[in-house]
């Protein structure tokens, strides 16, 4: 499992005083990048080779400005052209579950505008990480 922390910024809250629902998708995106970097994959926008196929987030408890959130990301499934991640977003101080999300990421050829098989070296890293 990959873990990262984020401190809720004021701009990520809404008129009700809690974290706006759209902010959770940004946290999950940051967590995906964090995982790919940990795997040693190039995350330069120039060489970007992934597309988000599907994402979902269930909001369980509220989070607030200046709260520290811990995002735990794990690899659930690795396919031929895509992989699936799960994200647990928790209050870092109490461990309370704030939200749970999922994402399906496909490997993508920008020039051809088509998904393509995950490169062998990345697939091996994803499988090794998943089974660790």
Low-confidence stretches: none
Helix content: 10-25%
The CATH topology is Thiol Ester Dehydrase, Chain A
Number of domains: 1
Provide the CATH superfamily. Answer: Hotdog Thioesterase
Estimated share of beta-strand residues: 35-45%
C-alpha termini separation: 9 Å
Average pLDDT for all residues: 94
Number of helices, counting only DSSP H or I runs of 4 residues or more: 2
What characterizes the major β-sheet?
A: 6 strands, antiparallel
CATH class: Alpha Beta
What string gives the helices and strands in order?
EHEEEEEH
Structural class, please? Answer: alpha+beta
Using only C-alpha atoms, the radius of gyration works out to 16 Å
Judging by the overall fold, what is the CATH architecture? Answer: Roll
Tertiary shape: elongated
Keywords: Hydrolase
InterPro entries: 4-hydroxybenzoyl-CoA_TE, HotDog_dom_sf, YbgC/YbaW
Protein name: Acyl-CoA thioesterase
GO molecular function, one term: fatty acyl-CoA hydrolase activity
Summarize the structure.
With 132 residues, this protein is an alpha+beta fold.
Describe the secondary-structure layout.
Blueprint: E1 2-7, H1 21-38, E2 50-59, E3 68-78, E4 82-91, E5 97-109, E6 114-115, H2 120-131
Antiparallel strand pairs: 1-3, 2-5, 3-4, 4-5, 5-6
Organism: Pradoshia eiseniae
GO molecular function, one term: fatty acyl-CoA hydrolase activity
Keywords: Hydrolase
Provide an overview of this structure:
- With 132 residues, the protein is an alpha+beta fold.
- It has a single domain (2-131), classed as Roll (Thiol Ester Dehydrase, Chain A).
- Helices cover 23% and strands 39% of the residues.
- The protein has two helices and six strands; from the N terminus they run βαβββββα.
- The chain has helices at residues 21-38, 120-131, and strands at 2-7, 50-59, 68-78, 82-91, 97-109, 114-115.
- Strands 1, 2, 3, 4, 5 and 6 form a six-stranded antiparallel beta sheet that branches.
- It is elongated, with a radius of gyration of 16 Å.
- The chain starts with a strand and ends with a helix.
């Amino acid at each position: 499992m990959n873990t990262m922390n984020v401190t809720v910024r004021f701009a990520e809250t809404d008129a009700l005083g809690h974290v706006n629902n759209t902010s959770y998708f940004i946290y999950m995106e940051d967590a995906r990048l964090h995982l790919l970097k940990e795997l040693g994959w190039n995350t330069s926008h120039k060489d970007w080779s992934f597309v988000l196929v599907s994402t979902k987030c269930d909001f369980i408890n509220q989070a607030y400005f200046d709260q520290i959130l811990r995002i735990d990301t794990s690899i659930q499934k690795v396919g031929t052209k895509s992989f699936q991640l799960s994200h647990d977003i928790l209050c870092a101080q109490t461990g309370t579950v704030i939200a749970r999300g999922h994402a399906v990421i496909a490997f993508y050829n920008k020039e051809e505008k088509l998904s393509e098989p995950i490169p062998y070296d990345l697939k091996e890293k994803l499988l090794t990480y998943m089974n660790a």
